[in-house]
Amino acid sequence: MNMLDDLYQEVLLEHKKRPRNCGRLQCVHRCAAGHNPLCGDSISVQLAESGDVVTDIAFEGQGCAICIASASLMTEAVKGRPLAEVRQLSAAMHELLTREAPLDDGEQDRLGKLAALQGVRRFPSRIKCAMLGWCALDECLKGGAATITTDPREAGHASLAA
Ligand code: ZN
Question: Which fold has domain 3-147?
């Protein structure tokens, strides 16, 4: 196991055991739900903003360890950030989870703990689990109260791009 594998295990287990920002917000400006029928993960994300900054974010739902840990990491990374940065971060995470090339040092620094999620690429069937929270976040940022699904057959819903 290399260092990143260790970090992956450690960060995931820790966030699964003690998810951050799990629950509901008092004041919700944006929300979206995500569903991954391949695994049975189902979570919703609520977001509060002031000016152009995400002042608070929470998620709730049911999911496997990777789904919950990734959503927990997502809320931790996004809280307190300007919306523009949140969009960039989400795009970086989609890339991290889908591309082949390893991160360079600069990227690893920028993503911090989130870089651990690239360990999930070794388990292709779990990538959508890790993406779910981020995809729900994207839907929040688009402003819709939509339900997303990873199942492309469910027409009428936005689906996770393969
Ligand atoms: Zn899952």
Answer: Sufe protein. Chain: A (3.90.1010)
